[in-house]
Design brief:
Length: 320
């Protein structure tokens, strides 16, 4: 079957390790389900995999892709939960949870096999392309906002780095849930788009906000860390799920963190139950993932290049 896969690890030039071509179709195994992939979306996790983060040389070649939606063996339209072994289903008793492409072949292919527990019904209201955007970036944003930040309607939130998959999801979900959402971006066009998607106001990175916020959604890392801490009210919460600009900020702001009793919470992906809630939220409210571009699988390299350059707003989706 045709697939986009990591053939080599290159920490400095990750796209050098990306190959497109034929790979073996998945083999049937007890307790697992094979899904014909209709759509899959790109995540920064795929670039990190090509750099060897979470993916070791002995696992190569590895088909990339965490997110996917398609049709199962019985003809049902489904969405895949990307965390394998989260509760022990379909894996050995001592195996810890992992994201697809760390230990198991991913979704950038004509077919993928996952534990049957990881297969969820796709709401009829969502297209395959829309559903394929949800299991990683949108689920991450959902958990960051509603589980780890613990915000509720009327609270204020700052989303750093409008345009990225998680940040865009946080703007849309937060606005739909009645939050006062502020956002930042270096790009004027992305700032304007964030307002269209529901942000109350947008700013250049580092700008002073009209008020201190209840929570900050942080995926940028070192470049925005100090600003994020300074924007929080006393007792506020910073939730971080990524560090695209690096993980070593110049100023840790420790004094401000303990003096203002701030909370810093790490967040990764989400649970199957949270994904079910997110799917229901989108189906019933009309909220839809923001898609930057849809490409056929054989043009996956274009999507990777666009994501690596940061030249996107929302998700890039591959169809097969």
């Amino acid at each position: 079957m045709f697939a986009a896969y990591a053939a080599r690890i290159d920490r400095d030039h990750p796209l050098n390790g990306l190959e497109l071509g034929e790979r073996p179709a998945p083999e049937a195994r007890p307790g697992w389900t094979t899904v014909t992939v209709k759509a899959a979306s790109l995540n920064h996790h795929d670039l990190w995999s090509l750099r060897g983060v979470g993916l070791s040389e002995d696992k190569l070649p590895m088909i990339l892709g965490c997110d996917g939606a398609g049709v199962d063996e019985d003809g049902n339209e489904v969405v895949l939960h990307s965390v394998v072994g989260q509760t022990g289903h379909g894996v050995g008793p001592r195996e810890t949870g992992s994201i697809l492409t760390e230990h198991y072949q991913g979704t950038f292919a004509e077919q993928v096999t996952v534990p049957t527990w990881n297969v969820l019904p796709k709401p009829a209201e969502l297209t395959f392309e829309q559903a394929a955007c949800l299991p990683t970036a949108w689920l991450t944003a959902y958990r960051m906002l509603f589980t780890n930040a613990g915000v509720r309607p009327g609270d204020s939130v700052l989303v750093q780095g409008a345009g990225g998959g998680v940040a865009t999801a946080a703007i849309v979900l937060g606005s739909a849930a009645g939050l006062r959402v502020y956002a930042t971006s270096r790009d004027a066009a992305k700032r304007a788009r964030a307002v269209e998607l529901g942000a109350l106001d947008v700013f250049e990175p580092g700008a002073r906000l009209p008020q201190r916020v209840d929570a900050v959604i942080e995926t940028v890392g070192a470049a925005t860390w100090s600003h994020s801490i300074k924007c929080l009210r006393r007792g506020g919460t910073l939730v971080i799920s990524g560090a695209t600009s690096g993980d070593r900020p110049e100023h840790a702001e420790l004094t401000r963190i303990f003096f203002l009793e701030l909370r810093v919470v790490g967040s990764t992906m989400g649970s199957k139950d949270e994904l079910e809630d997110l799917l229901s939220f989108c189906a019933t409210t009309g909220v839809r993932p923001v898609i930057d571009q849809v490409l056929p699988l054989d043009r996956a390299r274009e999507g990777f290049e666009k994501m690596a350059a940061g030249d996107l707003f929302g998700k890039i989706v591959l169809t097969s």
